[in-house]
Write a structure and sequence with these properties.
The chain has helices at 2-13, 18-47, 69-75, 93-113, and strands spanning 87-88, 91-92. Helices cover 59% and strands 3% of the residues. α1 packs antiparallel against α2 (18-47) and α2 (18-47) runs antiparallel to α4 (93-113). Strands 1-2 form a two-stranded antiparallel ribbon. By secondary structure, the chain is mostly helical.
Amino acid sequence: MIVAGALLAIAASRGLDATWVATGLAVLALATLANAGLGTYHAGVEWGWWKGPTACTGPLVDLGKAGNILEQLNKVKVVRCDEVQFRFLGLSLAGYNVLISLFMAATALWGAARPWRTR
């Protein structure tokens, strides 16, 4: 998103038509709103507001020989989807994802609604 926004800003500074700038900003706003929706879902799972996926997966590993399968499976650490791995100031990274995505969407919508002067 940031790279697309930077490319759009460069194109706008070089005289891209205002209609295309506004369209690009609207697309960026929709994409960041979708990302905010995913972050909200994940944060809701972490807070226990709704159920998440029935199973979370861990990394794929080489299980080696057949005799060691149970031993190897016991070594695989599965990261749970409903447990917060890290919190800062009371919010998980999923919560910060929501806030940052909403800020980016609002900024893009503000820019798309702004009357552009390309001359």
